[in-house]
Design brief:
Blueprint: E1 6-10, E2 25-27, E3 33-35, H1 38-58, E4 65-69, H2 88-105, E5 110-113, H3 117-120, H4 125-134, E6 145-146, E7 149-153, E8 156-160, H5 175-190, E9 198-201, E10 208-214, E11 217-223, E12 247-254, E13 259-266
């Protein structure tokens, strides 16, 4: 079998949230149907474009694998009431409906990592159930949703897991990325292991990337954009209330001459500007 030289990474689907990616019509456990909002319809259009246009173009039409980097469902968290349904079975079905067509596109080469317990359940049990249902590739212990993923993409080694530190200021967005990459290299050196060429994290719902020179060309650390808009929780946290949503995914690719990354990131329009009018 020929090696696969492309890995698409997406994260933070948060299926089941009113502000997240959702198919046009979803039947719920009680028999009713939820129809997506106009903003969810925009997210769905982005999703279709990402897989039908951007991925084939970025991979040059070559085979690719996929990693879904945690928080596949929104869960019941922080006393929130912003879910389409708090029935976790319904949320899992939404995630499976979204991911099953992607499983076909990557010919079953899909990996899933575990997200945040408040969303994915303790020990990632909801991510695990979805990953098993769609047939994700299990780890050596038989887990369909794993804590992290070490994976060779062409000549490069990538390390992928969900969590990373966050910040309330865009001025320090790349600080945690540099720390994450440096610590990964330090730990690898301490134990005589190969250091990762690419470190990938999600969780913060914002795409950012740092690149530093290395013996293999460049060492890279990036965070993925999400598939969820701003929720009521985000509006009240420092840095979040002024932020603009970032939607999209990333590609790790072994090209003809070098190992590199590419990203597709969208945003959404700000809320409508109000004009003051006299009497």
């Amino acid at each position: 079998m020929k090696p696969i030289n492309n890995l698409v990474v997406i994260g933070d689907l948060h299926s089941g949230c009113q502000f997240s990616l959702c198919p046009p019509g979803v039947q719920l456990d009680g028999g009713g149907v939820y129809y997506s909002s106009k903003h969810q319809q925009v997210l769905w259009d982005y999703w279709q474009y990402f897989w039908r246009v951007w991925v084939p173009k970025a991979t040059r039409g070559e085979p690719f694998a996929v990693c879904v980097n945690g928080d596949l469902v929104d869960g019941k968290h922080h006393n929130s009431v912003s879910q389409i349904t708090q029935n976790i079975r319904d949320q899992r079905i939404i995630a499976e409906t979204i991911l099953n067509p992607i499983m076909e596109k990557c010919d079953g080469q899909m990996y899933v990592t575990r997200g945040t317990p408040v969303h994915s359940g303790e020990s990632g049990q909801d991510d695990e159930s979805i990953a098993k249902s769609i047939g994700a590739i299990p780890d050596d212990l038989g887990h369909y949703a794993r804590n992290d993923l070490w994976i060779k993409v062409g000549q490069g080694l990538a390390h992928i897991t969900h969590h990373i530190g966050t910040t309330g200021s865009v001025a320090y967005e790349t600080t945690a990325l540099m720390k994450e990459y440096s610590e990964a290299c330090a730990q690898s050196g301490m134990w005589g292991l190969q250091a990762p060429d690419v470190v990938v994290r999600s969780h913060r719902h914002r795409h950012s990337e740092i690149r530093v020179p290395s013996a293999t060309g460049y060492g890279v650390c990036f965070t993925t954009a999400a598939w969820q808009l701003k929720t009521p929780f985000v509006w009240r946290i420092p840095g979040g209330r002024n932020s603009i949503p970032q939607i999209g995914g990333s590609l790790i690719r072994q090209g003809d001459e070098e190992f590199y990354t590419r990203h597709k990131t969208w945003t959404m329009d700000r809320t409508q500007t109000v004009k003051l009018l006299g009497a």
